[in-house]
C-alpha cells in the first residue's frame, strides 16, 4: 500500500496546485540521474510502491514536469527512488537546496536547519575539565529569545518560547576541542544547533530545543549525562556533526 496525500507537498496547498515548482525540480535533477530502461524490482523507500510502477505521489503533484514513472539514482550513494517522490520529500522540507538520501542519509549540497535567530559567544578560561587536566576550557554561550515561528517551523505564525537561555556549554581547549568548536561555528551558521519543536525534558511544544548535536552543559560533574568526564564525547560530537554534513572539509572555505 502506498502512502497517499491530498495535500500537494510542493506548495503545501490542497491540490490542484498552481505553483510552478521549477526550483525544487532543478534540485532533484541536479542530484539524481534518471534511470532509462526497466526499473529494478525494488520498492521506493519514500512511497513504498514498486519502482516499476508510478510514484505514490503522482496524484498530489500534478503540476510537476517530472513523469510519475520516472526513477532516478542519487549520484554518490546510488540509491534509487521515484523522482517525483524525491521532489515531494524535498518540497516538504525547508527547501535549502540540499537533499538527504532517505536510505543511507548521505547529504547532497549543504544541509541547513531551522534554528531561530540568536547569538553564539565564545570565551576561554584556564580551569580544566575533568578528564582533560592538561588544558583549559572553551565556553560557548548560546543566546536565543522567544519569537514568532517562520514558515520553516512546525506552526508558522505562532509564538515559540526559549527556556533556560543563555545556555552555557564547555569544550576542552586542546586541539580536538578547538576543532569541534570550529565545526560548531559552521553548524551554528547553518542553523543546525537548535530547532523549534517539543522538549523531551519538559514536554513543552513550540519551544527552542537542542537538535541532534550534543553539547556538554555541565562542567565539573556528569550527573545529568551532559557533563565531564566523558572520554567519548569529542568523537561522538564529531560523528553527530558529520551526520549533519559538517566535517573538516567545511573549514577554511
Ligand atoms: P530536549 O529535552 O528535547 O532534548 C534534546 C536533546 O538535548 C537530547 O539529545 C537531550 O539528550 C539533550 N539534552 C537534554 N538536557 C540537556 C542538558 N541539560 N544539556 C545538554 N543537552 C541536553 O531538549 P531541550 O528542552 O532543549 O533541553 C533540555 C535542557 O534545556 C534542560 O535540561 C535544561 O538544561 C534546559 N532547559 C532549561 C529550562 C529552564 O527553565 N531553566 C527549561 C527548559 C529546558
Ligand atoms: Zn516512490
Ligand atoms: Zn543513499
TrEMBL record:
Top-level lineage group: Eukaryota
InterPro entries: Deltex_C (IPR039396), Deltex_C_sf (IPR039399), Deltex_fam (IPR039398), Znf_C3HC4_RING-type (IPR018957), Znf_RING (IPR001841), Znf_RING/FYVE/PHD (IPR013083)
Enzyme class name: transferase
Xref: CDD domains: Deltex_C
Keyword Signal: yes
GO biological processes: Notch signaling pathway; protein ubiquitination
Pfam families: DTC, zf-C3HC4
Signal peptide limits: 1-19
Domain RING-type: 44-105
Catalytic reactions of this protein: S-ubiquitinyl-[E2 ubiquitin-conjugating enzyme]-L-cysteine + [acceptor protein]-L-lysine = [E2 ubiquitin-conjugating enzyme]-L-cysteine + N(6)-ubiquitinyl-[acceptor protein]-L-lysine
Subcellular location(s) per record: Cytoplasm
Any one GO cellular component localisation term in the record: cytoplasm
UniProt key word Metal-binding: yes
Pathway: Protein modification; protein ubiquitination
Keywords carried by this UniProt record: Cytoplasm, Metal-binding, Notch signaling pathway, Repeat, Signal, Transferase, Zinc, Zinc-finger
An example Gene Ontology molecular-function term: ubiquitin protein ligase activity
EC numbers on record: 2.3.2.27
Assigned protein family: Belongs to the Deltex family.
Descriptive protein name: E3 ubiquitin-protein ligase
Originating organism: Taeniopygia guttata
Amino acid at each position: 500500500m502506498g502512502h497517499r496525500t491530498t495535500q500537494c507537498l510542493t506548495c503545501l496547498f490542497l491540490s490542484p496546485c498552481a505553483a510552478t515548482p521549477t526550483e525544487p525540480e532543478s534540485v532533484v535533477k541536479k542530484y539524481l540521474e534518471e534511470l532509462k530502461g526497466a526499473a529494478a524490482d525494488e520498492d521506493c523507500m519514500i512511497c513504498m510502491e514498486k519502482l516499476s510502477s508510478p510514484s505514490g505521489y503522482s496524484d498530489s503533484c500534478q503540476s510537476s514536469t517530472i513523469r510519475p514513472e520516472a526513477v532516478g539514482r542519487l549520484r554518490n550513494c546510488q540509491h534509487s527512488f521515484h523522482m517525483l517522490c524525491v521532489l515531494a520529500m524535498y518540497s516538504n522540507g525547508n527547501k535549502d537546496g540540499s537533499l538527504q538520501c532517505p536510505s543511507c542519509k548521505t547529504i547532497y549540497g549543504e544541509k541547513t536547519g531551522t534554528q531561530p535567530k540568536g547569538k553564539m559567544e565564545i570565551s576561554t578560561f584556564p580551569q580544566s575539565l575533568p578528564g582533560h587536566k592538561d588544558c583549559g576550557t572553551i565556553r560557548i554561550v548560546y543566546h536565543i529569545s522567544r519569537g514568532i515561528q517562520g514558515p520553516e517551523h512546525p506552526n508558522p505564525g505562532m509564538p515559540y518560547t526559549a527556556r533556560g537561555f543563555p545556555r552555557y556549554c564547555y569544550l576542552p581547549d586542546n586541539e580536538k576541542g578547538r576543532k569541534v568548536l570550529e565545526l560548531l561555528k559552521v553548524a551554528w551558521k547553518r542553523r543546525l544547533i537548535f530547532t523549534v519543536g517539543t522538549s523531551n525534558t519538559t514536554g513543552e511544544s513550540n519551544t527552542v530545543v537542542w537538535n541532534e548535536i550534543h553539547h556538554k552543559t555541565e562542567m565539573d560533574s556528569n550527573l545529568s549525562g551532559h557533563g565531564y568526564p566523558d572520554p567519548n564525547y569529542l568523537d561522538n560530537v564529531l560523528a553527530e556533526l558529520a551526520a549533519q554534513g559538517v566535517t573538516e572539509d567545511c573549514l577554511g572555505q
